[in-house]
Design brief:
The protein starts with a strand and ends in a 9-residue tail after the last helix. The longest helix is centred in the C-terminal third of the chain and has 15 residues, at 125-139. A hairpin with a 2-residue loop joins strand 4 and strand 5 (28-33). It is built from five helices and twelve strands. It is 24% helix and 35% strand. It has 148 residues and is an alpha+beta fold.
Length: 148
């Protein structure tokens, strides 16, 4: 679904507060920045990932993102262990998340370690769309993607 040019796919889960999308596949979750997050961040200039195997608590950084207007963490929506990063993809094209935040621009793959207790804030489908509409209005965001 689209709102103010921001794409909010219905099939994903979202941590609205942290602007993280989640795609569950068995016991592994792929995480990335939402369209709203990459727009607010601006063009990526650099990204540094935590090491594979690292256990990260909910809310702590899985990676650090730098852009011309912002430096900050890419936070964990729940406690997890990092099983893969998209470091190779971002090495080839630093703007991956700015171009394709929900596909090639994924950030990390993780194994949740406390999901049952830490998933109540995650939303999907219509609920996610409605919450993002309010967030987009509050932040006055109009999503833009980088193109080649």
């Amino acid at each position: 679904m689209i709102y103010y040019a921001c794409d909010i796919p219905e099939d994903l889960y979202y941590d609205i507060e942290r602007d993280v999308w989640i795609r569950f596949d068995g016991d592994i979750a792929t995480l990335g920045m939402t369209d709203v997050a990459q727009t607010r961040c601006g063009k990526f200039a650099a990204i540094s990932f935590r090491n594979i195997g690292k256990k990260v608590e909910q809310g702590k950084a899985l990676a650090t993102v730098e852009s011309a207007k912002w430096v900050g963490p890419f936070p964990a929506p729940f406690s997890c262990e990092i099983v893969a990063t998209n470091e190779a993809g971002f090495a080839k094209d630093i703007l991956l998340a700015n171009k394709e935040p929900y596909t090639d621009g994924w950030m990390v793959k993780v194994r949740p370690t406390n999901l049952d207790e830490e998933r109540d804030h995650l939303v999907t489908g219509d609920e996610a769309f409605e919450k993002y509409k309010a967030r987009i209005q509050e932040l006055k965001v109009n999503c833009l993607r980088c193109i080649d």
